[in-house]
Design brief:
binds glutamic acid
């Protein structure tokens, strides 16, 4: 005779097995397309993906779209676009829950047949009255289980007459404990739940039920998801047990908080990952940044390539404490990746962010890149930060004057700079040549007197890369042209009178 294997035994066994599951690691990312692909969801997807790739396992994608009213194709598209943008490729096709309703129906029928689930006909009012009854006795409200005592005939009659019903599972009453890979031992008493609703009808399964069926059908070994799902886990484990499915490993990822350690502001919590793309973050920076939201490598390094992340990722190094979203760090990482990008890739990435005619000026663009790059956190800033390389700047003549220097002296200084630069005949026109040409002026009159108006004449700004560097990008003709324009600005406005 075959001995019955208890669920506890299986839990024990699966803990002992660790990651050495003979099937190999199989994880899934299971978004509900009821909102944009948020930062939190992207982090969940990434940790699943990194874990699978590190373990040489499989990363599956399942769209949990049984909530017909709230799920939309637009949100699904947003998730897929986000995954593709940061390169989280999934194995096999996409599973959509809405396309496998007959699978859930099969398991619901099985449970009903085995009297492990039952139809509940209680109305909202009846349930409310029951809950109030529990509360008035100081008890936690839950369903009393009333309908489980209906005879088969009574239940059939109600169903036949079209009485509204839901399907509840008989919840075993026990203490469920499981070893969360991140949080350690977690315990829940299932008696607090009562018989939970697992479907609103044979073809309308609810989240906790469909998740369990799908994870089993896809041979999922590890469920890695946000901490907000922690209270669903014991319910899902009880559904597994009732269905006779083996348990899986769980890892609940820490919350992501704002820099003030309070709930992440809506701007970031509800924003789509694709919004970050539109602002000009690059996927390498985004992945690096997301990976550090709750995980850190040995020796606390901050800059890690995707390959390094894959090779070093471990759920054991995911922290229990909440992760903090730090926009400055994201900008810093993005600027790091921008600075290290090869020129052609950079120009390609820049395309959506700058006017077409800038892209046609390839030489200027290539030379300006490293200078602008130093000063931007994201690609969208390139347009304002780098504008003066591509068109003559507009500025107020007053900023041409260094500190208390008069317009007259400023004009004299600019004029002398102009003459010195005119004398440069060597080619190519480099910043070193420019520097050598005007240094004697700056030595005798002071750095600010010479370099300040020179900078403003070229960039129209009080803060920019050094004027010699800008002049190398602009070339001799345009450099002279801009100094002349600055002189005209002073002279024609009558500032010297
Ligand atoms: N569909 C759930 C969500 O988007 C995730 C379910 C799970 O990972 O188990 O939050």
């Amino acid at each position: 005779m075959c001995a019955t294997i208890s669920f506890e035994f299986l839990v024990e066994k699966i803990i002992q097995m660790g990651y050495t599951n003979p099937m190999g690691v199989r994880v899934r990312f299971a978004p509900s397309p009821t909102g944009f692909f948020s930062l939190g969801n992207a982090r969940t997807a990434l940790f699943n993906w990194l874990f699978a790739r590190h373990e040489g396992g499989e990363f599956l994608l399942r769209i949990e779209d049984t909530d017909k009213e709230r799920s939309t194709k637009e949100f699904e598209e947003d998730v897929l676009a986000g995954l593709r943008w940061i390169g989280l490729n999934w194995d096999g096709g996409i599973t959509r829950q809405s396309e496998r309703l007959n699978l859930y129906e099969k398991y619901l029928k099985k449970l009903l047949l085995e009297h492990k689930a039952y139809h509940c006909f209680c109305t909202q009012e009846e349930l409310e009255a029951e809950y109030q009854g529990f509360l008035s006795q100081g008890l936690i409200p839950k369903y009393s289980g009333k309908c489980k005592y209906l005879s088969a005939d009574e239940a059939k009659q109600k169903l036949d007459s079209g009485t509204k019903s839901v399907i509840r599972i008989m919840m075993p009453e026990k203490t469920v404990s499981f070893p969360d890979i991140i949080r350690g031992k977690v315990e829940f008493k299932t008696e607090l739940f009562g018989d939970i609703i697992i479907a609103k009808g044979l073809t309308i399964p609810l989240y906790n039920f469909s998740v369990v069926v799908d994870d089993y059908e896809s041979n999922i070994t590890h469920v890695i998801r946000g901490e907000d799902h922690l209270s669903n886990t014991p319910k899902q484990m009880m559904i597994q047990e009732t269905l006779g499915f083996p348990p899986v490993h769980y890892a609940h990822l820490p919350l992501i908080l704002g820099p003030d350690r309070k709930k992440l502001s809506k701007r970031y919590a509800a924003a789509s990952l694709n919004e970050f793309k539109r602002e000009g973050y690059v996927p390498e920076a985004m992945i690096n940044f997301l990976a550090l939201l709750g995980w850190h490598p040995e020796r606390d390094r901050e800059v890690l390539s995707c390959d390094e992340l894959i090779s070093e990722f471990s759920l054991k190094r995911v922290q229990k404490a909440s992760a903090v979203f730090n926009e400055e760090k994201l900008n810093w990482l993005n600027s790091h990746y921008l600075k290290n990008m090869n020129t052609n890739n950079f120009i390609e990435a820049l395309k959506p962010f700058v006017p077409g005619e800038w892209l046609d000026k390839k030489d200027t663009l290539k030379k300006a890149l490293p200078l602008v790059c130093e000063r931007i956190g994201k690609l969208a800033e390139f347009k304002t930060e780098g504008e003066y390389f591509f068109k003559q700047p507009e500025y107020k003549k007053e900023i041409l004057c260094w500190k208390e220097t008069s317009f007259e002296q400023t004009a004299k200084n600019l004029n002398d700079i102009l003459e010195k630069i005119k004398e440069i005949s060597a080619k190519p026109f480099t910043k070193k040549l420019v520097h050598d040409a005007i240094s004697p002026l700056s030595d005798s009159r002071g750095r600010g007197e010479i370099f300040w108006p020179f900078r403003v004449a070229l960039s129209g700004r009080e803060a920019s890369p050094g004027p010699t560097e800008i002049s190398e990008v602009l070339g001799k003709t345009e450099t002279l042209n801009r100094i002349s324009l600055a002189l005209q600005k002073i002279e024609t406005s009558g500032a010297m009178v």
